[in-house]
Automatic annotation (TrEMBL):
One of its GO terms (biological process) is protein quality control for misfolded or incompletely synthesized proteins. This is ATP-dependent Clp protease proteolytic subunit. InterPro entries: ClpP, ClpP/crotonase-like_dom_sf, ClpP/TepA, ClpP_His_AS, ClpP_Ser_AS. It comes from Zancudomyces culisetae (Gut fungus). It comes from the Eukaryota.
Length: 115
């Protein structure tokens, strides 16, 4: 999304959970919206691994790298300190549109389509 030069509007109409919340917040600053009764959820990445111990260690290392990368992306788009992002992402964290606005995930809660 950041590669595209045109402005990108994002709108949460019902739920934006997990990677959906990242897509919502990665829209162009000032053009990230939510309807009033929507729900936005952020959390750290999850996954599973099986097999040999060395393979499990490889997967664990990769998921930790993904968590750090995602935390930096959320931090950049919300202007929140990385420690705030890490705390918010620790478990499933559901937010109302007003909470998402205060957190910096969106820019406006809209009830009617703008003309």
């Amino acid at each position: 999304m950041q590669y595209i030069q045109n402005p990108i509007s994002t709108v949460c109409m019902g739920q934006a959970c997990s990677m959906g919340s990242l897509l919502l917040t990665a829209g162009t600053k000032g053009k990230r919206y939510s309807l009033p009764h929507a729900s936005i959820m952020v959390h750290q990445p999850s996954g599973g691994a099986e097999g040999q111990a060395s393979d499990i260690a490889i997967h664990a290392k990769e998921i930790l790298k993904a968590r750090d990368r995602l935390n930096r992306i959320y931090s950049r788009h919300t202007n929140q300190d990385i420690s705030v992002i890490e705390s918010a992402m620790e478990r499933d964290n559901f937010m109302t549109p007003e909470e998402a606005l205060a957190f910096g995930l969106i820019d406006e809660v809209i009830a009617k389509r703008k003309k």
